[in-house]
Amino acid sequence: MEDGAKPRDLEDRTFLFAESVRTSVKQLPRTVSNREGVRQVVRASGSVAANWIEADEALSKKDFLMRAKICRKEAKESRLFLRLIDVGLTKSNIARRDALAAEARELTLIFSAIISKSSGS
């Protein structure tokens, strides 16, 4: 994700997102307010990747749509917690956080488009 070229395969892209979140949070200040936010963003970002794998292997259209909706929900939650965590005052932490929040937003839009096209709406 660092080089600007994003994988077209959602399994790879969601994995890289979760991995980047984990790498990024290691650089954050260890504050009381970050403890829960970091825990939540790590869980939510991993859930995006895990649920996409589940959607890709769905047993039915209904199962696929449910998993895709969970992916969208978890991507939104990831963005929220990324915006809430205290990154400190370093420009690199701020830039990294903003890039991850932008990726979470893009993933939300991708999953929204998938849901819309799959449900026939």
Describe this structure in words.
The protein is mostly helical and 121 residues long. The protein has four helices and no strands. The chain is elongated. The mean pLDDT is 91.
Number of beta-strand segments: 0
Oligomer: single chain
Count helical runs: 4
Mean pLDDT over the full residue set: 91
Morphology: elongated
The CATH homology group name:
23S rRNA-intervening sequence
Question: How are helices and strands ordered from N to C?
Answer: HHHH
Question: Structural class, please?
Answer: mainly alpha
So, CATH architecture?
Up-down Bundle
Rg, Cα atoms, Å: 15 Å
CATH class: Mainly Alpha
Strand content: under 5%
Head-to-tail CA distance between termini: 32 Å
How would you summarize what this structure contains?
The protein is an all-alpha fold and 121 residues long. The chain is built from 4 helices and no strands. The relative contact order is 0.16.
Secondary structure layout:
Elements: H1 10-25, H2 32-56, H3 61-84, H4 91-119
Please supply descriptive tags for the structure shown above:
121 residues, mainly alpha, 4 helices
